[in-house]
Write a structure and sequence with these properties.
57% of the residues lie in helices and 6% in strands. By secondary structure, the chain is mostly helical.
């Protein structure tokens, strides 16, 4: 109840100055100057404005804390106020309104999958199609501009999530990212044995005269990818992140060769 009262008070104060798109207006007060920060907008996480004055920073800090906890963390529908039964809450089960992007929901949650390297491709494909049907522009063209914006953002995020999770390499990189581990895909591989092998494979691809030869090489490359994929999974499950990064660098080499083969086929 206390949080709700804070929310109502803050809304009354800002209601005359809020844009129709629900982002904070920079014209709240002529004496206040704005600066961009990473914050939450009126209904969802994103870029907003923070106002500088003797009281502005304190007010917005308290407003952000209470409003964000009511919206993003509570999982309430922005339209009808019903609490979501479960994540990812891309659309409201009660009023069917498309919801704003909640950054606390990761790509695995969007597809109802466990955060693991091995996933069910069939479930991924089916859930992707189901979400895209609900977010399709033809289904929201009669909605408000706010909901159209939410649908576009959600659709873009679902597409990105699908493309990331469907390939082992990008899925592995994303998993490490969730653990706070950065992977430099452009880092030069220094293993002489691996470099020699990669050069040999590339030469074989260049010299291949027909699709049959290319598919044979592709099969060998896929086997290498499978080996290093299993190596990554083992290292990741044991939280040996340095070994996991090494496996990703090997996967990257073979994945790029595979892309070259696909282009030639």
């Amino acid at each position: 109840m206390q949080r709700r009262n804070l929310w109502v008070s803050a809304t009354k104060i800002l209601s005359r100055r809020l844009r129709s798109s629900s982002r904070f207006s920079t014209n709240l007060d002529p004496e206040l100057q704005s600066t961009r920060v990473i914050s939450c907008s009126f209904h969802h996480a994103g870029e907003s404005r923070v106002f500088k004055s003797s009281y502005g920073n304190i007010f917005l800090a308290n407003y952000r804390k209470n409003f964000c906890s009511l919206d993003e963390n509570s999982g309430r529908c922005w339209n009808c106020g019903v609490v979501a039964v479960s994540k990812p809450f891309l659309s409201c089960d009660s009023c069917k309104s498309v919801q704003p992007v909640h950054t606390s929901v990761d790509y695995f949650q969007i597809f109802g999958l466990e955060k693991a390297f091995e996933i069910e491709d069939t479930n991924l494909e089916k859930t992707y199609k189901d979400w895209q049907k609900k977010l399709h522009p033809d289904l929201v063209h009669m909605k408000s501009e706010k909901e159209k914006e939410f649908a576009a953002e959600q659709s873009s995020r679902v597409i990105d999530a699908y493309r990331t999770l469907r390939k082992p390499l990008s899925r592995a990189i994303y998993l490490l990212g969730l653990e706070g581990v950065h992977v430099d895909e452009e880092r030069t591989v220094s293993d002489p044995e691996l470099l020699a092998e990669i050069l040999d494979i590339r030469e074989a691809v260049d010299e291949a005269s027909n699709s049959q030869s290319l598919k044979k090489i592709q099969g060998q490359v896929q086997e290498k990818l499978e080996i290093w994929s299993k190596s990554f999974e083992s290292a990741f499950n044991k939280k040996k992140f340095e070994d996991a990064v090494t496996s990703i660098q090997r996967m990257t080499c073979y994945d790029r060769i595979n892309d070259e083969i696909v282009k030639k086929l």
